[in-house]
TrEMBL record:
This is Subtilase family protein. It is found in: Secreted, Extracellular space, Apoplast. Required for arbuscular mycorrhiza (AM) development during AM symbiosis with AM fungi (e.g. Glomeromycota intraradices). Residues 1-19 form the signal peptide. Belongs to the peptidase S8 family. The lineage of its organism: Eukaryota, Viridiplantae, Streptophyta, Embryophyta, Tracheophyta.
Length: 292
């Protein structure tokens, strides 16, 4: 079978022809098409024929040919056939490959085409729109995207219509993927979608940024103290503020996450910054609305 670069997205679409088959969307590197084929469609058919267990052409396998948003095809395959294609050339995986410090966020103009072209790109969630990140990857020549959450988004996932094959992962999975890309000399990717899960309710999260001004002497250090009810988790970053001069301003970010026992009745707490000489207290009121 001719060598080809494949990016997989497994779609759990019911197949009434045979329960043993599922529909796969396969991304193909158009530059890898052998010259013996007149069209990409012919190449895809030949690739499927090479893994077919039947003696004649498997006319029902090839469902659709993609030529606009990306190059590839949709095919109905059983697990053995999918594994045969899966064993072919894998796609490279990259993270934070660009000319600026914002390439990890996949901001417009931040990705290096020479590093990204033909590969799957890990993009940190945040700052710019999620769908725009996929557009940036596509414009740089990338063929897929892993949208990875950071601490700001935690495990919250949102469904989007991306311009390249893409998956979204929470912070825990994102940290594992980022670590893998940084430590493996030849990281590769296989994107798969395991179906749609209904009735999933994301955590109720509120986040805001405040500013604290130093009213004490230069070199003042303020420590954090949090008072909160049992129904909410409060995280503040950083937990220590160091001021080099009088009147200097420092920012800190507060994240509130409702727990399972959160109620709609008002509850109260406080965020306090203090040292031996000064104390700055911010009262906080919590009221959560239940999602119906």
């Amino acid at each position: 079978m001719a060598s080809m670069a494949c990016l997989w997205i497994l779609l759990l679409i019911p197949s009434f022809a045979t329960a043993a088959k599922q529909t796969y969307i396969v991304h193909m590197n158009s530059n890898s098409m052998p010259s013996s084929f007149a069209t990409q469609h012919d190449w895809y058919k030949a690739s499927l024929q090479s893994i077919s267990s039947s003696s004649g052409p498997d006319s029902d396998s090839l469902i659709y040919t993609y030529t606009t948003a990306f190059h590839g095809f949709a095919a109905s395959l059983d697990l053995d056939q999918a594994e045969l294609l899966r064993q072919d050339e894998a796609l490279g995986l990259v993270y934070s490959k660009g000319s600026s410090s914002t390439s990890n966020l996949c901001l417009p103009g931040s990705l290096d085409q020479n590093q990204v072209r033909g590969k799957v790109v890990v993009c940190d969630r945040g700052v710019n729109a999620r769908v725009e990140k996929g557009s940036v990857v596509r414009e740089a020549g990338g063929v897929g995207m892993i949208l990875a959450n950071t601490a700001a988004s935690g495990e919250e996932l949102v469904a989007d219509s991306h311009l390249v094959p893409a998956v979204a992962v929470g912070k825990k999975a994102g940290d594992i993927i980022r670590g893998y890309v940084k430590t493996d000399p030849h990281p590769t990717a296989l994107l798969s979608f395991g179906g749609t899960v209904l009735n999933v309710r994301p955590k109720r999260i509120v986040r805001y940024t405040r500013v604290l001004t130093n009213v004490g002497a230069a070199g003042a250090v303020y420590q954090l103290a949090i008072t909160k009810p049992s129904t909410v988790d409060v995280q503040v970053k950083p937990t220590t503020l160091v001021f080099k001069s009088v009147g200097q301003k420092q920012r800190y970010t507060v994240t509130f996450v409702a727990k399972a026992n959160a109620t709609s009745r008002p509850e109260f707490g406080s965020i306090v910054w203090s040292n031996a000489l000064n104390r700055v207290s911010s009262p906080v009121a919590f009221t959560w609305s239940r999602v119906v």
